[in-house]
Amino acid sequence: MIEATERRLAYLPLAGMRLGQAFARPKVLASACVVALTALGWLYLGLLIANIGVATPQGVTALCRPLLDAGTGEGGFALVLSMWIAMVFAMMLPSAAPMIFTYAEIADTAARKGEAIVSPFALAAGYAFVWIVFSLAAAILQAALAQAALLNNNMAVTSTVFSGAIFAAAGLYQFSALKHACLHKCQHPFPFFFAHWKTTAPGVFRLGAMQGLYCLGCCWAMMSVMFAVGTMNAIWMAALGAVMTIEKMSTGRRFSHGLGILLLGAGAVVVALALR
User: Fold this and answer.
1) Are 29 and 121 in contact (CB under 8 A)?
2) How far is 202 from 89, CA to CA, in rounded Å?
3) Of 40, 185, 178, 205, which Cα lies nearest the Cα of 119?
4) Radius of gyration (Cα) for the chain, nearest Å?
5) The Cα angle at residue 219 between residues 133 and 92, in degrees rounded to 5
6) Rounded to an integer, what distance in angstroms lies between the CA atom of residue 77 and that of residue 233?
7) Among 75, 177, 214, 234, which one has the highest count of C-beta atoms within 10 angstroms of its own C-beta?
8) Which of 135, 129, 150, 132 lies closest to 71, judged by CA?
9) CA angle, residues 238, 38, 254, in degrees to nearest 5
10) Which pLDDT score, from 0 to 100, does residue 77 have?
């Protein structure tokens, strides 16, 4: 397979041929895909946060106002949707890296045997599609909360008790059977790919979408915590993204259960402070 690729690229200049050979390898494509999309997500979020940091006489920044008023206009909703898409790319793609690299390892082995393979881009596209749909749902929810004046200037829910309930619900979900069934699929992608291997782009896209659904089942409750802490809180974005990545790379349930206890404790503290 590699020799055939070298012959097809022989007419290119040396630098171009080497670049073509590199991107003909699934593992290189997978790495580039994860790094590029994650970096773009964080870059866009960084630009949003930098603009939000500029105060206006009204006390709400020029960019923050459309985010809060998302329910009143198409422009504001589009901005909120783009924010959520960037957020899920920044937070979820690193946690999906082991799954994408597992596919790339299998595809690389198949390519060396001369078998037909599909680019990891198709797999990543299927995975991203699921999270883009989630982003749309989250943006609609944020728009509804904003229209009902239930978000503060930090784009967190105004009710402290409700914030505590979000933490508690996310903590309880860490102990659920659905959570661990989905987490198991995320932690062990090789059996899934071995049993469902496809050699067409639509088939691989569906594999990515299925893995995206498992990831969504694993992480949706953790993502909902952003409504409690503020949907543009970069520190919580990074922390939750790191925690979800570690959880998928760990084995067993100890880490998940420990995280559930921490979330339950945080929820209890927040509610107790609110009721004082």
Assistant:
1) yes
2) 22
3) 205
4) 21
5) 70
6) 19
7) 214
8) 150
9) 50
10) 83
Q: Left (φ > 0), alpha (ψ -120 to 50) or beta: where does 230 sit?
A: left
The torsion defined by the Cα of 184, 190, 195 and 200, in degrees rounded to 10, comes to 120
129 within 8 A of 212, measured Cβ to Cβ: yes
Q: Amino acid identity, residue 270?
A: V
Q: Do you know the residue count of the chain?
A: 276
Residue 157: strand pairing partners? 151
With tokens 């999309």, the residue in question is: 37
- Calpha distance 6→83 (Å, rounded): 42
Phi, psi of 238, rounded to the nearest 5 degrees: -65, -40
Task: Please check whether residue 160 is in contact with residue 274, taking contact to mean a CB–CB distance below 8 angstroms.
Answer: yes
- Tokens (6 digits) for 130: 């699921």
Sign of dihedral through CA atoms 142, 175, 101, 200? negative
Q: Is residue 204 within 8 Å of residue 134, measured between CB atoms?
A: no
- How is residue 158 annotated by DSSP? S
pLDDT tens digits, residue range 100-140? 889 988 888 888 888 888 888 899 899 999 999 999 999 99
Whether the Cβ atoms of residue 251 and residue 186 lie closer than 8 Å to each other: no
Q: Backbone phi, then psi, for 250, in 5-degree steps?
A: -85, 175
